[in-house]
Amino acid sequence: MRDARPETPAPATTPVPDLLAFLAGRWHVARTAEDRHTGTRGHFTGTADFTPPPGGGLRHHEEGTFTWDGVARPAYRTLRWLPDPAGKGSARVTFDDGRFFHDVDLRTGHAIADHPCSLDLYRGEFTVSGPDLWSVVWRVAGPAKDLVLRTEHTREAPSTG
């Protein structure tokens, strides 16, 4: 007998055969953050620049304004996306200091990545919706955390192809 639950439609995706080539450039970033324990909400708006640093891969530098509980502050972060020898559609993502964050493979245009952090688990769902649009939803669960972070990246200079 077939399961009676309705099927969740798969997100519309755009395959990414070369992840680092896809990410290169400047993106507008819009993020919402929700603490489901307290009901507090916030948002971030800014830019993310993906540029080639010495040594290969891409440097992902994000900066803008994060507003949390009505208080706006400057915010930034830097990550590094390193090519995965297994294929151009995947990368290893590290923090700026070199610590491992997660692996991601977007050859199908969709991926799930996990990052255990102390007693918390960060689970990211990445979706590429077109040549100039991708998103990630991080759900954070742990003894003291219940967060949902939704981020949409829109290319600032749309691709021509």
TrEMBL record:
InterPro entries: DUF6314. It comes from the Bacteria. Residues 35-56 are annotated as: Disordered. Residues 23-155 form the DUF6314 domain. This is DUF6314 family protein. Pfam families: DUF6314. The lineage of its organism: Bacteria, Bacillati, Actinomycetota, Actinomycetes, Kitasatosporales.
